[in-house]
Write a structure and sequence with these properties.
Blueprint (H helix, E strand, L loop, with lengths): L9 E5 L5 H8 L5 E2 L3 H5 L12 H4 L16 H5 L7 H8 L2 H4 L9 H18 L3 E7 L4 H7 L4 E6 L2 H8 L22 H9 L4 H23 L4 E5 H6 L1 H11 L7 H9 L6 H4 L4 H17 L15 E2 L6
Parallel strand pairs: 1-3, 1-4, 2-3, 4-5
Antiparallel strand pairs: 5-6
Helix pairs in contact: 9-11, 11-16
Length: about 325
């Protein structure tokens, strides 16, 4: 069977601990979107294993639920099928640079572009879907991804940088690892930010905050340059306040019809809780540090300086559309 060129793939991006998992997995409960299942992580050379993903369309109970990251999963839940971030797959098709570098100013080679496009075409064929979607955290990599997929859509999930930073310092892939003392991706922070961090005594919380700010600024810069009309931003805080309407807004932005399946998944399989209140309960010294390091960005995004509970933005914003 001949492969069709992939059309308008969808990438949900965001800083780690921003809510990308819950937003993307709810969106990916649609029956018309293909994604990377966990099995492909183990055998990236064999995209045919994604045929297993068809099971979740026939038997919705087979799909993985979304639970809080600090809750353990029973073996039965681990055996269920669901979308994954798929870094072994990206490394296989785009090299280790995709994992460890910011990729600012980097475009894929002709071979990388062709390989990625073939992979997505095969996933759509094996899963019987018209569109493909995935999520990627850390650097948005918009310039690199549009080099392979010129018509790609991007949804950037943004969360209060104070909550993201506090959450990062408590999770196992950050706490007590090299990420507490080193930048997580090469090229994310410049010398000025590194000097500011060193002047504070290199606290992990400050490093997390500076990376949050740099990643958002970089994503916006890449979006404006490479995909101004196909880039949108949603807020974690708005999602937890109205997840059903947010999922519909994302679908409309991506040119997809509103479907009932994501709402059924939300009601039956997702635990949506606003985790910001606990995360932003700051000491005076922490608050002062955040104000100094990322206060400008927090204010520009509306996280400080407004009235409590005030929201003067749409559920989904398109800051560069028509520019």
């Amino acid at each position: 069977m001949a492969l069709h060129e992939p059309s308008r793939p969808i990438f949900v991006v965001g800083v780690p601990r921003s809510g990308t998992t819950v937003v993307f997995n709810c969106f990916a409960a649609r029956p018309d979107v293909a994604w990377f299942p966990q099995h492909l992580n183990r055998v990236p050379r064999w995209p045919s294993v994604t045929l297993l993903a068809r099971l979740v369309d026939r038997f919705p109970s087979v799909r993985k639920s979304i639970r809080r990251s600090d809750h353990s999963r029973r073996w039965r839940e681990k055996a269920r099928i669901g979308p994954v971030e798929a870094y072994p797959i990206w490394e296989h098709y785009a090299g280790s640079k995709f994992l460890y570098e910011s990729l600012l100013g980097v475009r894929p080679t002709a071979d990388e572009s062709a390989g990625l496009r073939r992979l997505v075409s095969k996933l759509q064929r094996y899963q019987g879907k018209d569109r493909f979607a995935t999520k990627i955290t850390g650097p948005a990599r918009i310039g690199f991804l549009t080099g392979a997929f010129p018509d790609a859509f991007f949804v950037n999930v943004i969360r209060d940088g104070r909550a993201v930073s506090r959450s990062l310092t408590k999770v196992d892939f950050f706490k007590d690892t090299w990420r507490e003392t080193s930048v997580s991706w090469e090229g994310v922070l410049g010398d000025v930010d590194l000097d500011r961090w060193q002047a504070l005594g290199k606290p992990p919380l400050a490093l997390a905050a500076l990376q949050w700010q740099a990643l958002i600024q970089a994503a916006r810069g890449e979006a404006k340059a490479h995909a101004p009309d196909r880039y949108a931003e949603v807020r974690y805080e708005d999602f937890v306040a109205d997840p059903h309407e947010m999922i519909d807004e994302i679908a409309r932005f991506c040119g997809l019809p509103v479907r009932p399946e994501p709402h059924e998944f939300l009601r039956a399989r997702v635990e949506v809780r606003d985790m910001n209140r606990r995360s932003v309960d700051l000491s005076p010294s922490e608050q002062s540090m955040f104000d100094d390091l990322i206060g400008v960005e927090l204010a520009e995004l509306g996280y400080i300086g407004g009235e409590p509970g005030e929201r003067e933005r749409p559920l989904l914003s398109r800051p560069f559309a028509g520019g």
